[in-house]
Each structure stands twice: as structure tokens, then as C-alpha cells.
Amino acid sequence: MAERTALSVPELDAAPSWKRALAEAVRDPDELLRLLRLPDSLRERARRAAERFGLLVPRGFLERMRPGDGSDPLLRQVLPLDAELEERPGFVPDPLGEAQAAVAPGVLRKYAGRALLVLTGACAVNCRYCFRREFPYEEVPTGAEAWSLALGALAGDDSLKEIILSGGDPLLLSDSSLERIVASIAELPSVQRLRIHSRLPIVLPERVTPRLLGWLGGTRLSPILVVHANHPAELDGPCAEALLELGRAGIPVLNQAVLLRGVNDDANVLAALSERLFELRVLPYYLHQLDPVRGAAHFHVPEARGHELMEQLRRRLPGYLVPRYVREDPGAAHKTPIA
Ligand SMILES: *Cc1c(COP(=O)(O)O)cnc(C)c1O
Ligand code: SF4
Fold first, then answer.
1. Ligand 2 atom showing the smallest separation from residue 126 Cα
2. Is the CB of 109 under 6 A from ligand 1?
């Protein structure tokens, strides 16, 4: 026994704590229901939907949910439900036509002056409303060679001002990989900005380590981080600390939320989200209309209702705390404001 302990302890220490937290994330719907003391009647409904798109939720995120409450707004974002199996007209596998925007494997050119690198298909959480639930991420190239090919496809394009690291969740890559990728991006002379889209600071705040702050704050590129929180209850102690750390390191942080029925389709919730974000030095950026992806129709909020909510926010909050209400139209060169 003593021997085994001696062997396993250094190994554990070598893995950053966020990797351990990810390895220990809940993947079994039965376990989720048991931990939250939810009724067994949900079991079959959850299990069938989880076969199509797996359950995945870090334990730290689960701890922010109210036990025994089947309609908890954080639970709704991650709990598989049989409503996902219903086909609804207009809700399709690739609502954004992303398959068409690829200029090379893992490189999307949808926006002027910006290129998107899809570094991984993996995420630390499976949000039930995500368009990723149907995206062919098996086709995303991974590994140093693939990434250098992807960047090679962008070399020589002097119109490129910004590189967006996206996914899945790009912060699931190791710091050493990200350091290498960022160094290669910094070699592209016209690129000025490095933007990262990640939900990890929210769902797995352990990911915000001194080493991450080091490479993100230390590149010649101007960094900007766009996180994704939908409800103020997501912004608990460890998450708040991670966001404040990013702010202290001088990294601008913006938030995008998705308007979701039963989660945040309420002016009180959206106003509280904006105010809590700002308390943590994060500015609300976008409120997205749900992408009509197959399996997510039960989260749909009509635009007329979204518009009403925006009106209420404008009446209650300073302009800088009112997010832009937008939708993504396939093939469009920018997001469409919903007026
Ligand atoms: C909308 C979007 C962009 C472009 O964002 P802007 O802030 O409008 O330039 C880039 N990446 C992702 C993943 C987006 O959803
Ligand atoms: S974190 Fe973002 S990309 Fe990942 S499942 Fe959730 S919404 Fe989709």
C-alpha cells in the first residue's frame, strides 16, 4: 500500500487541478439525479436523450444548483431531456451552415479581418442548446502539425487583424500547446488581436491559472476573452475569483449569453446577470437568439419576447450593462441585430 501511494502522489501533482476536475466531471445521468436528489421519474427521460448527446457537467458547476429543484436554471442547461428527441420544423443539424465557412480544416473565415481557429471539438460541459451537439467535430484536426497547417493557410493574408480561438473550448488545450499556437499567431505580421471564446472560466474556473494569465497577458497581441454565462447563479465564489484574476491581469473580458426559455427569459434574471458580471469586471456583450439546432426547440424564446425583455433592460440599466440582442444568420458577414 505504501508503495502505491508513493507512486501515485507525484503523478496526481503533475496534472493541473483543472484536468483532475474535468476527469471527475459527472457523465452519468443517474449520478446527476442522485446528487441533486431529483425524482427517479426523470431517469428514463434523461437516459434516452443522453444517448444522442452525452451528459457532461463539472462537479463545481453542479454545486451551484439547488438540490431537489428540477427546474433549476443551471440544471436545465445540462440535463438531457426527452424533449430533445422531438423533431421540430426549422430546427436542423447545421443551422449556421458552418460546414461551408471552412477555408482549411479547422479554419473558418466568416467575418472580415478575422479568422476562427477551431482547436478542439471538446468542451468541459455539454450545454443542451448548443449547435455543437450536431457538429462533425471528428473532422476537426488536432495536434501540432494540423495547427501549423491551419495557420499556414492564413499566412500572407494581410487583411487579417484578429484570430479567434474557438471550439469546442480552446482552453481545454494544455498551456504548452496554447503557448506554441499563440507564438505562431504572433508571427503573422498583420494580426493585432487574439480573441478567445471559452466557457471554462465559468464552468471550470480552476482553468484560470497563473500560467494561463502568463501567456495570455504576455503576448504582443492585444488579448480579449469572451466568456459565456447565462444566469447570475453561475457566477459563484471560485468563478468570481477567476474572473477578477483575469481583470487584475489586464485582460478585457466580455460575456455572451444565450436567451433560453426557463433559464433567463426574465428581465430580473438578465438585469441581475449584467450587474453581477460588472461587479466581476466583465461587460455584457451579446444576448444571442438561440440557433435553431435540432434538439433545442424547447429552449426557444420568440424574438418578440426577447425584444420586450431588452426594452425592460434598457429602462433599468445603464447602457453599458445592456447586451446587444443578436442572431446569427447563415452566411451573413456579421451578427444581425434584432431591432
Ligand atoms: C459572433 C461570433 C464571432 C464574431 O463576433 P463579433 O464580436 O461580432 O466580431 C466570432 N466567433 C464566434 C464563435 C461568434 O459566435
Ligand atoms: S460551452 Fe459553448 S461550445 Fe461548449 S457545449 Fe456549451 S455552448 Fe456549446
1. 5
2. no
- Contacts made by residues 12-20, CB under 8 angstroms, sequence distance 24+: 16/206, 16/209, 17/206, 18/200, 18/204, 18/206, 18/207, 18/209
* Closest CA relative to residue 325, chosen from 270, 281, 276: 270
Looking at all shown ligands, the one closest to residue 333's CA atom is: 1
- CB-CB contact of 298 with 268 (8 Å): no
- Nearest-atom number in ligand 2 for the CA of 168 is 3
Q: φ and ψ at 177, to 5 degrees?
A: -60, -45
Task: Output Rg (C-alpha) for the chain, integer angstroms.
Answer: 20
What separation in Å is there between the alpha carbon of 198 and the centre of ligand 2? 8
Nearest-CA residue for atom 8 of ligand 2:
130
- Helix axis angle, 303-316 to 267-279, nearest 10°: 50
In which band, very low, low, confident or very high, does the pLDDT at 144 lie, cut at 50, 70 and 90? confident
pLDDT band at 4 (very low <50, low <70, confident <90, very high): very low
- Return the SS3 of 35: helix
How far apart, in whole angstroms, are the C-alpha atoms of residue 176 and residue 195? Answer: 18
Q: At what angle do helices 175-186 and 210-218 cross, to 10 degrees?
A: 0
What's this model's pTM, rounded to 2 decimal places? 0.94
Residue 258 Cβ contacting ligand 1 at under 6 Å: no
> Tens digit of pLDDT for each residue in 167-177?
899 999 999 99
pLDDT tens sequence across 211-249 = 999 999 999 999 999 999 999 999 999 999 999 999 999
Please write the tens of the pLDDT for every residue from 65-120: 999 999 999 999 999 999 999 999 999 888 877 666 777 778 888 889 999 999 99
Query: What is the per-residue pLDDT for 11?
Result: 47
CA of 53 to the centre of ligand 1 (A): 24
